């Protein structure tokens, strides 16, 4: 299997929504490379819908075919609800495409920016996906 | 010296006379008085309020000149006493331009202690006011937590130091709620950047409903134990329609530790692969 790490740089034109770091209160800015998201295809294994930040676990095969276990974070449920997510948003067991700010030291951890589901649905993790003021409230 | 005197005079004009005048009204201490909340029209603070991203957002620092916290300890609008500046510089914030992940000294992140006020307004959370004739209950998504602002009441003569202090309030001009708080403990930070305070802190908050979608908060921080004169800050809020407390934003030391083990620890140190 070819490397599933299919790209590293996303065009600057796409960067507008890649601005807000998840776990803003847990010191990620120094640890993750916020300048260039890495694009990966991986198989979802677990979705922790929890404080202080959601955690998404997935497996990626490296160039030698070895499986690397990744985990990435989003904002907490309270914030992600406002962005249209629920605890059932991710199809566990399916292969998806993930856009991630990864750890500078190369550890398989990072900060999710966007995920593309098998049917092409895009789930944005950044603030640009928040509903506009005036949108109907959902409680 | 002139600036100190002017600052003190402004602070007195803003809050203290009002507090004293209301204290002299002799309402029951920290309890429902059963009387109308104020001679002034009640300001309508209804709605869910979130930091206004178009006007500063939640920021990192109470310093108006350095909201991002990039000049921590050297802001020109924070009149530090020497020890307070040293303490600020010795703290290790969990956010801002130079955040610490695993070894922060931020007591809210480290111990899940209440952030207190005004620190809580530096979090990306919503605030809701529940207004009754006797009190205004201020609800926060983080915690979730709340504080009580007693209307037509007075402070205890010697309040026990507590996390949220003792708050009294009154309405002004039909659009403003003034909250006067004393009786803080000294365990919280004023903001995300580690600015300290003592149990001598006297905080005056002025919440003004500018229009149906805008709430502004003027703060006066008067702490003779940490700062050489009263100083001011400002926060902007916009009305949120995304729902209040749809998920309980509870701080759990156990969940924080698990998060650090999963996401933080692997990213610290030498290359892992």
Fold and architecture overview:
The complex is a heterodimer of chains A (139) and B (273). With 139 residues, chain A is mainly beta. Chain A has one domain (12-127): OB fold (Dihydrolipoamide Acetyltransferase, E2P) (Beta Barrel), CATH 2.40.50. Chain A has 1 helix and 6 strands. In chain A, strand 2 (55-61) and strand 3 (67-73) form a beta hairpin. The radius of gyration of chain A is 15 Å and the shape is globular. Residues 1-23 and 129-139 of chain A have low confidence and may be disordered. Chain B is an alpha+beta fold. Chain B has one domain: Beta Barrel (Lipocalin), CATH 2.40.128. Chain B contains 5 helices and 9 strands, in the order H-H-E-H-H-E-E-E-E-E-E-E-E-H. In chain B, a hairpin with a 2-residue loop joins strand 7 (202-211) and strand 8. Chain B starts with a helix and ends in a 9-residue tail after the last helix. Classes of the chains: A mainly beta (139), B alpha+beta (273). At the A-B interface, strand 3 and helix 1 of A face strand 9 and helix 5 of B.
Task: Describe the structure concisely for a colleague.
Chain A is mainly β. Chain A is built from 1 helix and 6 strands; from the N terminus they run βββαβββ. Chain A has a 5-stranded mixed barrel.
Secondary structure elements and their pairing?
The complex is a heterodimer of chains A (139) and B (273).
Chain A: E1 38-48, E2 55-61, E3 67-73, H1 77-82, E4 95-102, E5 109-116, E6 122-124
Parallel strand pairs in A: 3-5
Antiparallel strand pairs in A: 1-2, 1-4, 2-3, 4-5, 5-6
Chain B: H1 2-14, H2 16-23, E1 48-51, H3 82-90, H4 107-111, E2 127-131, E3 135-140, E4 145-151, E5 166-172, E6 176-182, E7 202-211, E8 214-222, E9 231-240, H5 253-264
Parallel strand pairs in B: 4-5
Antiparallel strand pairs in B: 1-2, 1-9, 2-3, 3-4, 5-6, 6-7, 7-8, 8-9
């Amino acid at each position: 299997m070819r490397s599933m790490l299919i790209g590293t740089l996303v065009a600057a034109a796409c960067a507008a929504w890649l601005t807000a770091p998840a776990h803003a209160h847990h010191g990620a800015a120094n640890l993750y490379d916020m300048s260039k998201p890495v694009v990966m295809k991986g198989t979802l294994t677990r979705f922790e819908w929890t404080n202080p930040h959601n955690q998404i676990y997935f497996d990626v095969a490296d160039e030698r075919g070895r499986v690397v276990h990744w985990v990435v974070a989003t904002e907490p449920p309270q914030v992600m609800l406002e962005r249209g997510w629920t605890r059932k948003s991710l199809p566990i067991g399916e292969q998806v495409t993930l856009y991630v700010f990864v750890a500078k030291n190369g550890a398989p951890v990072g900060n999710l920016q966007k995920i593309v589901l098998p049917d092409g649905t895009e789930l944005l993790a950044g603030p640009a996906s928040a509903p506009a003021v005036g949108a109907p409230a959902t409680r | 010296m002139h600036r100190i005197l002017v600052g003190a005079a402004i602070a007195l004009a803003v809050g203290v006379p009002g507090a004293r005048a209301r204290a002299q009204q002799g309402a029951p201490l920290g309890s429902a008085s059963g009387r109308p909340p104020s001679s002034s029209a009640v300001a309508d603070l209804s709605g869910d309020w979130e930091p206004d991203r178009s006007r500063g957002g939640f920021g990192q620092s109470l310093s108006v000149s350095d909201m991002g916290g990039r000049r921590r300890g050297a802001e020109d609008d924070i009149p530090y006493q020497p020890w307070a500046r040293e303490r600020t510089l010795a703290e290790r914030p969990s956010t801002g331009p130079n955040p610490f992940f695993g070894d922060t000294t931020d007591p809210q992140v480290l111990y899940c202690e209440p952030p207190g006020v005004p620190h809580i307004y530096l979090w990306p959370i919503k605030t809701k006011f529940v207004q009754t004739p006797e009190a205004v209950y201020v609800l926060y998504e983080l915690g979730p937590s709340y504080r009580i602002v007693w209307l037509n009441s007075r402070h205890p003569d010697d309040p026990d130091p507590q996390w949220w202090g003792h708050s009294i309030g009154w309405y002004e001009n039909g659009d403003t709620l003034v909250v006067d708080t004393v009786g803080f403990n000294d365990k919280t930070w004023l903001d995300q950047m580690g600015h300290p305070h003592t149990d001598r802190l006297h905080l005056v908050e002025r919440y003004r409903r500018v229009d149906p979608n805008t709430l502004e908060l003027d703060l006066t921080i008067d702490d003779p134990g940490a700062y050489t004169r009263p100083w001011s800050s400002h926060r902007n809020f916009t009305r949120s329609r995304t729902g209040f407390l749809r998920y309980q934003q509870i701080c759990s030391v156990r969940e924080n530790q698990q998060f650090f083990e999963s996401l933080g620890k692997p990213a610290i140190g030498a290359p892992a692969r």
